[in-house]
Amino acid sequence: MNKDSEKYLERKLCAEVKAMGGIAYKFVSPGRRGVPDRMCVLPGGRVVFVELKSYGKKPTPLQEIEIGRLKDLGFEVFVIDSTEKLEVLSSHLRQKYLGQWVTVSGKELAEQVARRENK
Ligand SMILES: [Mg+2]
Question: Which CATH architecture has domain 6-117?
Answer without folding.
Answer: 3-Layer(aba) Sandwich (3.40)
